[in-house]
Amino acid sequence: MVPQSILKTMKPPRPVVPPGPDNPLGAYRMRLSYDLYSIHGTDTPWAVGRLGTHGCIRLYPRHRELYDDVRVGTPGEIVYQPVKVGEDGGRIYVQVHSDIYGRIPSLTRYALAEVRKRASPAASTRRAYGPRSRRRADSRWTSRASDVTGSAG
Predict the structure, then answer these.
(1) What is the pLDDT of residues 86-100, one digit of tens each?
(2) Are the C-beta atoms of residues 119 and 92 closer than 8 Å to each other?
(3) Three-state secondary structure call for residue 97
(4) Which of 3, 82, 89, 153 is most deeply buried (CB count within 10 A of its CB)?
(5) Active-site residue flag, 40
(6) What does pTM read for this prediction?
(7) In a domain, 12, yes or no
(8) pLDDT digit string, tens, across residues 31-67
(9) 3-state class of 88 per DSSP?
(10) Which of the following is catalytic: 54, 56, 63, 97?
(11) 55 and 89: one domain?
(12) b/e for 117-143, b at 16 or more Cβ within 10 A?
């Protein structure tokens, strides 16, 4: 059954959409414990990661293996994380997205604190949150993770 909120946007509205290439859920759907939302594919891959959904999490069709890897009943957690920090080979990477829910008063301060928390002891504190990481957080660069190591603080 198609939820009422989605029916309003369909042309023509169809209370049931059969499986196939025009199904907005794509080829696969993973139900969550809160049945109103799910993780599913899409018939519009350009919409993955955008705010145009009705609350579901859309995946690219190529991520089909997720459905094979996750067994029914596997616990999971959905987190809100506009600032992502990671380390690879001694390099620190930061990715900052807009805080769409307005939960973080200063993305810059938050991003710098996350870098400090997650930087390995081997990484120089000065290198881990120098001017480059401050610029990345300030600019709200949202495309790819940025290497913030190697700049003098």
Answers:
(1) 888 888 888 888 888
(2) yes
(3) coil
(4) 82
(5) yes
(6) 0.59
(7) yes
(8) 888 877 888 888 788 888 777 777 788 888 888 888 8
(9) strand
(10) 56
(11) no
(12) eebeeebeeebbbbebbbebbeeeeee
